């Protein structure tokens, strides 16, 4: 299940090295110590705060009283119900290590990762030595992401992280596999990814430390974080499917950005050359471009400067309205790149082509006049983008 076979690239062209950012330490440089100050995660920031031990000794005729949520793809057993029996006795006797609904069993009598064997041991072993993590469920993960995105205002960069992880698919190879987190070359060093390994990934470090790999992979986390961010910023609810696999070396990801990610200084022809091989239509291209309704360009990363809209943290159809209704003047920024300016906001040439190309403009006008139409078309194209190059994914984490 998932994308184990899609991640190795045969693309060995040298442009990745030419685009490389200054080499940084492989992330995370200091596990457990976020590089950027972030809010505490549920259950505590350190493993010492989150993990606790439970010893249960079964007696004849007495039920265990511990119901768990078993799914073969998981590596933990989330606690659903404490229903009396030995488990309830433990909770009364050990209030400082009380088992709670929403905590997850990560080890049973020395067994980790194999949930089928862990569950079997819970059924047949007379004594159970359990290691449990507080607040380790999908609901807690979403709540931690919502908290991070709301407090740090980092929704746009979460969207960009997921887009660039999956967008390397070129119709032949490449897929979302979190290769960008691994220093030394490849996707980590792409010029198009500047700022993502240095800002976006460290923002997620405290959440990653808790949930990866116990509950979710890095690449699934990045997809979920983007979809939570879109909702937090006022956008549509987007379904996230799970089962992406993380590579363990940068060489397992793609090695060249050529023909994979769009450049901001190009035209409609370039957008079609990038997106058509991925299976997208003109409508999809315009809908996906609407993600520029949030976020901003940073000169030191992309060579472009400024936000697309006046409220860079609001996901709506303002991007299309501004494209059509504002007066735009071309300018040259410090990097030498050309872009368009209207007051404090800017547009790239790949934005302006959406109203210059007649086929693109048809959809831009539609989305400017109908936010619901934009949301529906964006959702459909965005889910396909997040799953490019993947095999069968599942609905439940």
TrEMBL record:
Q: Where is the PDZ domain?
A: 53-113
UniProt keyword terms in alphabetical order: Heme, Iron, Metal-binding, Oxidoreductase, Peroxidase
Provide the protein name. L-ascorbate peroxidase
Keyword Iron assigned to the entry: answer is yes
Q: Which family does it belong to?
A: Belongs to the peroxidase family.
Q: Which domain of life is it from?
A: Eukaryota
Tell me which residues make up the Plant heme peroxidase family profile domain.
151-397
Question: Matching Gene3D superfamilies, A to Z?
Answer: 1.10.520.10, Peroxidase, domain 2
């Amino acid at each position: 299940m998932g994308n184990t076979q899609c991640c190795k690239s045969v693309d060995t062209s040298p442009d990745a090295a030419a685009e490389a950012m200054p080499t940084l330490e492989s992330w995370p440089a200091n596990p457990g110590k976020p590089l950027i100050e972030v809010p505490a995660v549920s259950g505590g920031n350190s493993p010492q705060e989150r993990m606790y031990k439970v010893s249960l000794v079964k007696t004849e005729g007495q039920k265990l009283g511990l119901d768990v949520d078993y799914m073969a793809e998981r590596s933990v057993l989330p606690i659903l119900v404490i229903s009396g029996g030995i488990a309830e006795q433990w909770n009364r006797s050990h209030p400082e290590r009380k088992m709670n609904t929403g905590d997850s069993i990560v080890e049973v009598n020395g067994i980790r990762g194999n949930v089928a064997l862990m569950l079997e041991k819970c059924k047949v072993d007379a004594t159970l030595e359990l290691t449990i993590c507080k607040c380790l469920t999908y609901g807690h993960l979403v709540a931690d992401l919502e908290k991070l995105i709301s407090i740090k205002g980092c929704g746009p960069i979460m969207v960009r992280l997921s887009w660039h992880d999956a967008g390397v698919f070129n119709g032949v190879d490449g897929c979302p596999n979190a290769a960008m987190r691994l220093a030394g070359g490849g996707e980590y060093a792409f010029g198009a990814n500047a700022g993502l390994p240095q800002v976006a990934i460290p923002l997620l470090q405290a959440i990653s430390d808790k949930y990866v790999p116990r509950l979710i992979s890095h690449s699934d986390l990045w997809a979920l974080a983007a979809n939570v961010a879109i909702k937090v910023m006022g956008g549509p609810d987007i379904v996230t499917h799970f089962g992406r696999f993380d590579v363990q070396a940068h060489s397992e990801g793609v090695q060249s950005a050529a023909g994979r990610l769009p450049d901001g200084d190009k035209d409609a022809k370039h957008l079609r050359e990038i997106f058509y091989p991925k299976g997208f239509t003109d409508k999809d291209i315009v809908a996906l471009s609407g993600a520029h309704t949030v976020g901003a360009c940073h000169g030191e990363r992309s060579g472009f400067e400024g936000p697309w809209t006046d409220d860079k943290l609001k996901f709506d159809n303002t991007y299309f309205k501004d494209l059509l209704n504002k007066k735009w003047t071309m300018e040259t920024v410090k990097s030498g790149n050309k872009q368009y300016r209207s007051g404090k906001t800017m547009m790239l040439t790949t934005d302006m082509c959406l109203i210059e190309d007649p086929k693109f403009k048809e959809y831009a006008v539609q989305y400017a006049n109908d936010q619901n139409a934009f949301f529906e078309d964006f959702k459909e194209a965005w889910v396909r983008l997040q799953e490019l190059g993947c095999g069968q994914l599942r609905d439940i984490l």
